[in-house]
Design a protein that fits this description.
With about 200 residues, the chain is an all-alpha fold. Helices cover about 75% and strands about 0% of the residues. Helix 1 crosses helix 4, helix 4 crosses helix 5 and helix 5 runs antiparallel to helix 9.
Length: about 200
Amino acid sequence: MPRVSQDHLDARRRQILDGSRVCFARYGYEGATVRRLEEATGLSRGAIFHHFRDKESLFLALAEDDALRMADVVAEQGLVQVMRDLLAGGDHPADWLGTRLEVSRRLRTDPEFRARWAERSQQLTTATRLRLLRQREAGNLRDDVDVDVLTAFLELVLEGLVSHLAMGLPAAGLGPVLDLVEETVRRHRPGANGRAE
């Protein structure tokens, strides 16, 4: 039997993730049955669960995929840019964001899921904190508030924005709100206009 190349395995994994994202977006976490996942990915349950232990692992892999992508943006441009990207639409339709509301429910009721989710979300927290520390060293970040407090503030704003978009509420006009958030963490110096977060 010929060996399957790593490129083929990676492409198959990406196919599963892309199809599953659509399925979770359309049906929610609970409604994304194995049969629907098979239809959305075009693959059998055996193929899907060869790459992922179970539906929860698949969903968490999607969350990790999001966290890694966001962490890359945070490292280069800050967490407010992640929020601006969400407003612009990008790869996160409101239906997919709606699954985050279901995640919130599971975080309250399922300790094992909460622990696994925390591992994924820590990547974004770490990237945000490191970005803020670099900005503080560069003199662009306000120095009267602890970096951990600023990190928590930006994460709460992100969660609020995700909930807002997931509920299908209008995004028009939120750009100035993000400008205000950005201005809130920036160090105020005469003539300074560097991005802080």
